[in-house]
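Retro notes (design track)

What went well: tokenization of the new backbones is finally stable.
What didn't: we kept losing track of which sequence belonged to which structure.
Fix going forward: every design gets posted as structure first, then sequence, in one message. First example under the new rule, 572 residues:
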């Protein structure tokens, strides 16, 4: 029996088990929205901006483990999701994004709201296609979901011309698809893995470096077993944090540009670095010539292209992280690492990760408050100083998850991603940790939170500045705070070197802003208010903004200047 493309579109989503779609209507997708209106299986979430929409889909996908599904119109609707596509691409988030398109016979004529969105997004999607024949619609949608979720997960974009949506054709939706040229590596090369383990077993100073790939593969339980069997210490990337509980005795901390002193020292002094699920980006390596200079490097990653792209490794292993660890568990034995672990503990004692407690309210105190009040939940960060403080001080385990924008570092990610996580997991506490700059980039999504009855707790660290750039200006640019002061007005002195008594009031008032959207808020200025503020926030039935006033000149330390060796840490 023949049906229209729009009916097949909805049927396909239902057969893929989609229960939520993040959509913003427009001329070239009105037929699809009309068809969605006629069913009650899939919830349609209406955000307030397409960039908010795709970040909400990312948060939903990360929190639930399902595919995030987006639907936007052609032209600006499509171009507004490009940032989110890039974000999902770098952080391995499975998305299927549908964009409307002008009818096929109008493509290439500069029709109203026509853009080549497939061409524009080719470098930041796993797969993209414009459906040019109605008979291919079902197959292409099936391919989209398969590609998004297999191998290294990522975003897929399907462009749907308006005439394809209304044209009749087969109502059959395939239950499987064979894609020529897309072959998954579903095995691990045992010879290479044994070669890597042989190196690890012979090491006197072995170290596991764990990236986000372990979290993506849901190999947390297996990793913990591996670490406990071998007694080898572990460091993580920012995206790898949470792969092993942060209170585990063998966990050292994050390594990299803002990594823990002991973790960076361990990477610099280890003799075998066994890395799983990391791309070795510049935030982890610093000066490539000085990265793990004494170590043989083993690299396990599901993506062939990631191996030896940045760091040339000694033993490459292309495999899913979980599969590789499961195989390792068949052979591994306890190793004598007491002396090595004692050395790492000495580094930690020498320069512990802590902030001064004699300067009033600090970011560490805020994160410790979250740790104390929320034993379970989903923690979502925006991007900036607050993100680094969260990754330094937040405690994670099997009951607590961290969602953040790592590869692209997208300001404006936090609030919508938290809303998406809350929509996907309404029974869990969802805490958004943001800065005053990042929060304002998608602040309109507070309306989405209200309409979706998603009572997220928004923890905004307000220092009046775009803090991460301000930190670089303070340390490396002679305190020339160009374009980072969020209180600055046209009438301010040109050569201002920081806060002074003549500074104007900060805008907006975040508490009143929350109230204007129907939520509620509090301003917190003292350390003894932190716990009670979080306890109060948990009791509210609407979105909450907790505005924490922190020092303008608070720094994220340790810090390594971009391009420098990780051994050259700024500590004070």
């Amino acid at each position: 029996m023949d049906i229209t493309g729009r009916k097949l579109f909805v049927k396909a989503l239902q057969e893929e088990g989609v229960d939520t779609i993040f959509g913003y209507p427009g001329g070239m997708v009105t037929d699809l929205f009309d068809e969605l209106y006629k069913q009650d299986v899939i919830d349609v979430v209406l955000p307030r901006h397409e960039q908010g929409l795709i970040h909400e889909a990312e948060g939903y996908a990360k929190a639930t483990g399902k595919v995030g599904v987006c639907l936007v119109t052609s032209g600006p609707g499509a171009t507004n999701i490009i940032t989110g596509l890039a974000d999902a691409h770098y952080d391995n988030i499975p998305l299927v994004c549908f964009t409307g398109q002008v009818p096929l016979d109008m493509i290439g004529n500069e029709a109203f709201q026509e853009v080549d969105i497939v061409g524009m997004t080719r470098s930041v999607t796993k797969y993209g296609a414009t459906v040019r024949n109605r008979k291919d619609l079902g197959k292409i949608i099936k391919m989209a979901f398969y590609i998004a979720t297999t191998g290294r997960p990522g975003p897929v974009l399907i462009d749907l011309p308006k005439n394809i949506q209304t044209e009749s054709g087969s109502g059959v939706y395939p239950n499987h698809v064979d894609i020529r040229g897309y072959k998954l590596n579903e095995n691990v090369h045992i010879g290479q893995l044994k070669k890597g383990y042989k190196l690890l077993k012979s090491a006197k100073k072995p170290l596991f470096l764990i990236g986000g790939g372990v979290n993506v593969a849901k190999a947390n339980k297996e990793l913990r077993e591996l670490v406990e069997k071998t007694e080898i210490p572990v460091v993580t990337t920012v995206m790898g944090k949470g792969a092993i509980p942060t209170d585990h005795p063998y966990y050292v901390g994050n390594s990299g540009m803002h990594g823990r002193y002991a973790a960076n020292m361990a990477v610099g002094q280890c003799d075998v670095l066994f890395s799983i699920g990391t791309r070795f980006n510049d935030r982890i390596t610093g000066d490539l010539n000085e990265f793990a200079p004494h170590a043989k490097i083993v690299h396990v990653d599901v993506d062939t292209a990631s191996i030896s792209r940045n760091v040339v490794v000694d033993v490459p292993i292309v495999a899913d992280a979980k599969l590789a660890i499961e195989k390792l568990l068949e052979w591994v034995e306890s190793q004598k690492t007491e002396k090595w672990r004692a050395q790492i503990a000495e580094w930690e004692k020498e320069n512990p990760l802590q902030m001064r407690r004699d300067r009033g309210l600090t970011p560490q105190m805020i994160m410790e408050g979250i740790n104390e009040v929320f034993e379970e939940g989903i923690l979502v960060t925006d991007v900036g100083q607050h993100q680094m403080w969260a990754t330094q001080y937040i405690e994670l385990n099997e009951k607590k998850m961290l969602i953040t924008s790592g590869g692209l570092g997208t300001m404006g990610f936090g609030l919508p991603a938290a809303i998406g996580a809350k929509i996907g997991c309404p029974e869990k506490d969802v805490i958004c940790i943001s800065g005053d700059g990042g929060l304002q980039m998608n602040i309109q999504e507070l309306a989405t939170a209200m309409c979706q009855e998603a009572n997220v707790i928004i923890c905004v660290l307000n220092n009046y500045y775009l803090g991460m750039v301000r930190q670089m200006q303070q340390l490396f640019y002679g305190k020339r705070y160009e374009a980072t002061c969020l209180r600055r007005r046209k009438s301010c002195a040109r050569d201002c070197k920081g806060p002074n008594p003549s500074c104007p009031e900060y805008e907006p008032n975040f508490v009143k802003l929350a109230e204007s959207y129907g939520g509620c808020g509090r301003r917190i200025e003292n350390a003894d208010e932190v716990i009670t503020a979080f306890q109060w926030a948990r009791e509210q039935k609407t979105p909450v903004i907790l505005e924490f006033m922190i020092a303008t000149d608070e720094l994220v330390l340790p810090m390594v200047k971009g391009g420098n060796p990780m051994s050259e840490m700024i500590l004070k």
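Added context from the reviewer: Residues 111 and 317 are 49 Å apart (CA to CA).
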